[in-house]
Amino acid sequence: MHPAKRAVALCSMLIVALYFSPSKSFAHTPQTAARKIETEKAGFCHLVRNPDQYDGKLVTVTAMIAAGPEGSIFHDNACEASPSEPDLFAVVAFSQENYKFGSPIDKRLRTLLKKSPARVTVVGRFVDGKDQPFGHLNCCRYKLEVQELLVVERVSQAARDKPKT
Question: Most exposed residue of 38, 99, 127, 129, measured as fewest CB within 10 angstroms of its CB?
C-alpha cells in the first residue's frame, strides 16, 4: 500500500477508535484559544451567587446538565439552596451563531443526555434574568448560552445524588 494511503487509513482508524472508546470523558482541543476569546473561569455556585459580577460575560464553567421535555438546565449538587438563594439553576441555550451542532463532542453530550445527566465544561455567556426569568414557566433566573463544549463526562448515580467535593 502506498505510504500516503496507509497514513490516511491509520488516521481514520485512530479517529474511529477514539470516538467510540468507552472512556468516561470526552474532550477536544478548545477552539476558544484559536479565536482568542477572553473568558472568566468561575465555579457554578459562585456564578449564580454573584450574578452581577458575571452578567453578560463569557465564562468557562463546569456543571451538571440535565435534559427534560421542556428544556435543559445547568446545576451543581454542591450548591445548597437557602431561602435567600432558592434559584441555583440556569437554563441551557446553545448559541445558534457559535455552537458546533453535530460535532463529535456535541453528539457525545446528546447521547449521554438520553440516559442521564452529564458533567460538562463549557464556554458560555451568562445572563441574569432577574427581571425576565428564562425557561419553561419562567423556572430559572439565569441562562447560560453555550458557545463551546470543552469536556463531556458521564456521571455516576452516586455523583448525581451527592455534592462533588
Answer: 38
